[in-house]
Amino acid sequence: MGMSEFYGSTDEGEAVATIHRALDLGITLLDTSDIYGPHTNEQLVGRAIEDRRDEVVLATKFGIVRDPNDPTVRGVNGRPEYVLAACDASLRRLAVDHIDLYYQHRVDPDVPIEETVGAMAELVDAGKVRFLGLSEASPETIRRAHAAHPISALQSEYSLWTRDPEDEVLPTLRELGIGLVAYSPLGRGFLTGQIKSPEDLAQDDFRRHNPRFQGENFRRNLELVERVKEIAADKDCTPGQLALAWVMAQGDDVVPIPGTKRRTYLEQNFAASELSLGAEDLAALDEAAPVGVAAGDRYPDMSSIGR
Known about the structure:
Helix content: 25-40%
Order of helices and strands: HEHEEEHEHEHEHEHHEHH
Oligomer: single chain
């Protein structure tokens, strides 16, 4: 996502080089969406994997619709005809003949989930999609969707400062045999310890409008990061690596997808896969970052989350 917008300046050459470096390291899952850009991120990914398609588990999403005249205005569309058209458009932009994992980016409250998943199942039958996913869905919606067609993955925010899925969502996923793909596992960069002030963010960085990056919330969340940094120092790793290792330690069915625009940070993130956390480390992190520790909502408008 950050390679195309939202997180300040972009550099397409470095973005493609970062994707290639990821593949060289053995990172196989690439996650995009038709709204990133909008649309241009799928094109970028398509160009980057043009001659390496067989090395990639390619995931993209549909369902969030942005106003072409004002991209900040968004809606949700889960109508069956839209699902089919959105998939065809993504295939064209990605320049591939199939998508490995196709997510509904947000649940449409005005369309029964069975109808949306029914259309997604048609895409599987047509060979355009291999596996289906949801994003930010509630346990009840997950169950109904899974009954209509097997759901392989749920993508939701999950990290040391967003542990909400542990209450009801993760147990539901494990009961049904569905994996959790954890987006923002670094707390939108906050858990790296690199952001000391909101002024460290570019003027067009969307995090400036995120409640957790504002005012008193920012100060309180900085205290959490300081605790993580202390534990990371004892492990001789960066706070970001510790945060990623914590997510990976939650189970083989939990896969973090840290976003980065640069090879340097990609390689730092990759090194987290070699970091082993013992029971004492996990207990210390549980104490430092219990459920609900972060100050502020995850988004300015939470109305589309957890339907």
